TrEMBL record:
UniProt keyword Transferase present: yes
Protein's gene: tmk
Domain Thymidylate kinase-like: residue ranges: 8-199
Protein name: Thymidylate kinase
Keywords, ordered alphabetically: ATP-binding, Kinase, Nucleotide biosynthesis, Nucleotide-binding, Transferase
Domain of life: Bacteria
Catalytic activity: dTMP + ATP = dTDP + ADP
Binding site for ATP: 10-17
GO MF annotation list: dTMP kinase activity
Length: 215
């Protein structure tokens, strides 16, 4: 068996982390391969230290390109320490964010350029691409309202950006879905949580049928 790399993406407040936590055991029930979860930025000791710098609300002077480079650096370390060894051991890696996030947030949100950020991250990852990406999508206003309601005390530096920034992020995500329709599958994140999880599970089974048994 070969390892598989599945990522969850989407604008802030779409519920990626919650969905991932519920999706993980459901996937594990449907395959003999071990399923592990991880996240970006972070996922390993060094990458988590970089995460703290990136998301610190006090780092208001961070340059946009510095931000993009730090995300790529954290991603490289996470890849070397966690993702690649897991894939080599025939595990299924379920990750909360990967390269698409940088393309959307720094390429689109920061307006550095989607292609420039993509190229930077292709260097950082040596071209590794997920087998499947689940894009949790919905109006940015709804996502930001969820953050305000449920985790205002945990909001980070990017959460606190302007509405226009978050709208550019979503637009970039939709560009990625249009450019890579076989890999990036859009899921309506405005549905009840149970339905979002069910849709994600169904899409994984549909796109990777050789690995996940049909129920």
């Amino acid at each position: 068996m070969a390892g598989l790399f599945i990522t969850l993406e989407g604008p802030d407040g779409m519920g990626k982390t919650t969905v991932l936590k519920q999706l993980l055991p459901l996937l594990a029930q449907k395959t003999a391969q071990p399923v592990i979860e991880t996240r970006e930025p972070g996922g390993s000791q060094i990458a988590e230290q970089i995460r703290q710098v990136l998301l610190d609300v006090n780092n208001t002077k961070m340059d946009d390109r510095t931000e993009a480079l730090l995300f790529a650096a954290a991603r490289r370390q996470h890849l070397v320490e966690v993702v690649l060894p897991a894939l080599a051991a025939d595990k299924i890696v379920l990750s909360d964010r990967f390269v698409d996030s940088s393309v959307a947030y720094q390429g689109g949100g920061r307006e550095i350029g989607e292609q420039a950020v993509y190229d930077l991250n292709m260097f950082a990852t040596a071209g590794l691409t997920p087998d499947l990406t689940l894009l949790l999508d919905g109006p940015v206003e709804a996502g930001l309202a969820r953050i305000q309601k449920f985790r205002q005390d945990q909001s980070d530096r990017l959460d606190q950006e302007t509405l226009a920034f978050h709208q550019r992020v979503r637009t970039s995500y939709l560009h990625l879905a249009a450019e890579f329709p076989k890999r990036v599958i859009k899921i309506d994140a405005m549905q009840p949580l149970e339905q979002v999880v069910a849709d994600c599970l169904q899409q994984v089974q549909n796109h990777l049928p050789e690995t996940f048994q049909r129920s």
